[in-house]
From TrEMBL:
InterPro entries: DNA_brk_join_enz, Integrase-like_cat_sf
Swiss-Prot/TrEMBL keywords: DNA recombination
Glycoprotein in keyword set: no
Native species: Pseudoalteromonas denitrificans DSM 6059
The keyword Oxidoreductase is assigned to this record: no
Gene Ontology biological process terms, A to Z: DNA integration; DNA recombination
Protein name: Phage integrase family protein
GO molecular function, one term: DNA binding
Length: 683
């Protein structure tokens, strides 16, 4: 246990203060010198100048390059402790923390150095991160935008990491990171929201990055090739890996080898014919002791192919992120105790910090999880999916755990390659599809087929609010295409109904009468146009309806009129250029003006949108009544007529309501539905 060193005594001289601070730094480095690095690296120690992390060396922590000067040693140790805490203890992604630490150092070093914040010559005093002011942070952000025309949230997230590390991780040296003040905390914002705000102020694009979904034919091909692995191939695959496991109990493979090739004779004898349809055996051809045996490469490919099929099925039914797929563990899928056909996938959602999150999944997902658990040459360890190779120096039980996203993306991409499936997305600019593209594919399918898409995605994807599901939908080409198709169909249908009403004369209301007069003028012009041509009256009516529909559809698509159906069984065809208060939104707008104190003359110059939910029906001059969409009013009219003809002891209030409705809508409905009721019915 290190002796506590008090550095806050104001009686200490500056020299003594500096000496004590550096003693604290040295003690902190010594405290972590022999720390367990098993989740970070198989070869590196805490004190090393480079942390050679698991996976690609792209995410190595190059401490010697980032902080070369001895004067930056306090900053170096503080950053190492922060990285260690988030990687080894909190198990966050290596790629995430590496980007945050390196980004913080690059962006803030020139600000920290003049203020002697964690930077000083040995035995000279220095300041902690508490001396980095909110104003300093804002200046760094503005400088970064001016220099790079962009701003990365990861740079500023690093300060959040420092402030959330328990002080126990800085024994006797909490002064290094205590008291950190940030502008987003002062504004009660998250770091991400603050960065978006800064980018918006400077006119930068702050839209959420959207991932392009896979094309339908790609998904169809993947499903076609993956499903046999959990249906017809499942037993054969499990049996082969069972044989390997049993053989290795008595005949373990030699050091550096994954498989004892002598097991091949058993597999060839029992499963050769069945394996032809999954992955044909490859035999050693060179003249060695293993000639005629199954090659080492075949076993690796067979394992990865089986796990790839399982990964695709789980992805397409859950939409999990890459990092969450990599952290799935054996036994993560459990059957429901109430429903035989329902199962639950239990996982941690890293991004939203949800622990043991429960996702309902179909039987196919449960079978895929079982396949991933059993289709392994080495079934030790707890993770569900394993990378193909590992370093021989790795002695941990999780030596084949995927610590970065690249091996998992390679797993699903290799499965597609095996069947010559090009993972083309809807976007032409998208690189090879990743797990997030599959997530977008699932979101697109749900968004295109369910009115409750945001609620479903919020639950399925483990989002903490509705903003991210909405982002998945609003930027998703599949959803956009489906919605555009629905909008186009609705516009076509309404234009067709309106044109039919104009030709047949079955429109009513102020706007209806105007449109019928317009139809008469169009018909006169049309008769002049066809005066010298042999055209039947039927052809004339068809041509008239076509012309009117084309005109109406053009006005709707060009946003000249709103063309909205309302709960009052009318079509609102208000002009989009009308800037006055809409009758349906007049009262709410007035209240908003009072609250905001904005002058009415200003708001009158701004167009106000209709509010169909508050439609006032026949009292609005933009309301159009028509045979095709006003039939609910006829039903209500019929009800009130029957009521008024009934016995007379009912409620006086209902009687008054019935009489008022009949009076208000009798003439309108008569214009449209007179031929469906007897003479005098609407009078």
């Amino acid at each position: 246990m290190n002796q506590i060193i008090n550095i806050t005594d104001n009686k200490d001289s500056t020299r003594n203060l500096g000496k004590k601070q550096w003693d604290c730094i040295d003690a902190l480095a010594e405290h972590y010198k022999d720390s367990n690095m098993s989740s970070i690296s198989a070869t590196s120690n805490f004190s090393d100048g480079v942390w050679d992390v698991f996976g690609t060396d792209e995410y190595n922590f190059k401490w010697n390059d980032w902080l070369k000067d001895e004067s930056a040693y306090p900053l170096l140790i503080a950053c190492k402790v922060a990285a260690y805490n988030k990687l080894q203890i909190s198990n966050l992604a290596v790629s995430t923390i590496q980007k945050e630490i390196s980004g913080f150092i690059n962006a803030f070093f020139d600000t920290l150095q003049p203020k002697s914040i964690l930077i000083a010559e040995r035995n000279q005093p220095f300041n902690g991160l508490s001396q980095l002011s909110s104003y300093d942070i804002q200046l760094v952000a503005q400088s970064t935008i001016a220099k790079n025309s962009g701003l990365s949230v990861s740079t500023y997230s690093c300060l959040n990491r420092f402030s959330t590390i328990p002080i126990d991780f800085f024994p006797n040296s909490s002064f290094l990171v205590s008291g950190i003040s940030t502008p987003w905390q002062e504004q009660s914002l998250s770091c991400q929201a603050w960065v978006k705000q800064i980018k918006k102020i400077h006119g930068l694009d702050v839209t959420t990055k959207s991932y392009a979904p896979l094309k339908f034919e790609v998904v169809s091909s993947i499903v076609k090739n993956a499903l046999p692995f959990i249906d017809e191939y499942f037993d054969t695959i499990v049996d082969v890996f069972d044989e390997i496991e049993e053989f290795h109990k008595e005949n373990p493979p030699k050091k550096g080898r994954k498989v004892n090739l002598n097991v091949g004779s058993i597999i060839q004898k029992k499963y050769k014919r069945k394996l032809e349809s999954i992955l044909p055996l490859r035999l050693v051809e060179s003249k060695t002791n293993h000639t005629g045996m199954i090659t080492q490469g075949w076993y690796s490919e067979f394992e990865q192919l089986s796990q790839g099929a399982a990964a695709w099925i789980i992805l397409l039914t859950t939409g999990l992120r890459n990092v969450d797929m990599r952290n799935l563990e054996k036994g993560c899928c459990q059957p429901s105790k109430r429903h035989n056909l329902l199962n639950y996938l239990i996982t941690d959602i890293k991004k939203t910090h949800l622990q043991n999150y429960v996702v309902p999944v179909p039987p196919q997902t449960k079978k895929a999880v079982q396949l991933a658990e059993l289709s392994k040459i080495d079934r030790s360890g707890s993770v569900l999916f394993q990378k193909n190779n590992t370093k021989s120096s790795d002695k941990s039980s999780e030596k084949r755990k995927m610590n970065t996203g690249e091996p998992f993306n390679r797993l699903i991409q290799n499965f597609a390659s095996r069947y010559n499936i090009s993972l083309k997305t809807i976007s032409q600019n998208e690189d090879e599809a990743t797990a997030h593209c599959i997530r977008a594919t699932l979101a697109g399918y749900i968004g295109a087929n369910s009115a409750a898409a945001i609620l479903i995605l919020k639950k399925l994807f483990g989002h903490s609010n509705a903003l991210m599901p909405d982002a998945y939908l609003s930027h998703n080409p599949v959803v956009i295409a489906e919605r555009n198709k629905n909008i186009t169909n609705s516009q076509e249908s309404l234009a067709e109904d309106m044109a039919q009403g104009m030709v047949s004369g079955k429109l009513s209301g102020t706007k209806g009468k105007q449109m019928l007069i317009g139809a008469e003028h169009i018909e006169k012009d049309l008769r002049v146009e066809f005066e010298n041509k042999s055209v039947t009256e039927m052809d004339m009516q068809i041509e008239l309806k076509g012309r009117i529909k084309e005109m109406l559809l053009s006005r709707i698509k060009e946003n000249q009129i709103y063309a909205l159906k309302t709960p009052m069984s009318v079509a609102c065809i208000r002009s989009c250029s009308d800037s006055s208060d809409t009758p349906c939104a007049k009262l709410p707008n007035r209240e908003k003006r009072k609250e905001s104190g904005i002058n009415k003359e200003i708001t009158d110059a701004l167009a106000t949108l209709p509010n169909p939910a508050h439609c006032i029906g026949k009292e609005c001059s933009d309301a159009l009544f028509g045979e095709a969409w006003s039939r609910d009013l006829l039903g209500t009219f019929d009800y009130y007529i029957k009521y008024l003809k009934g016995i007379g002891h009912q409620s006086v209030d209902i009687k008054n309501e019935a009489e008022l409705f009949v009076k208000n809508y009798g003439s309108i409905l008569k214009d449209i539905y007179a031929d469906e009721r007897g003479d005098g019915y609407f009078d």
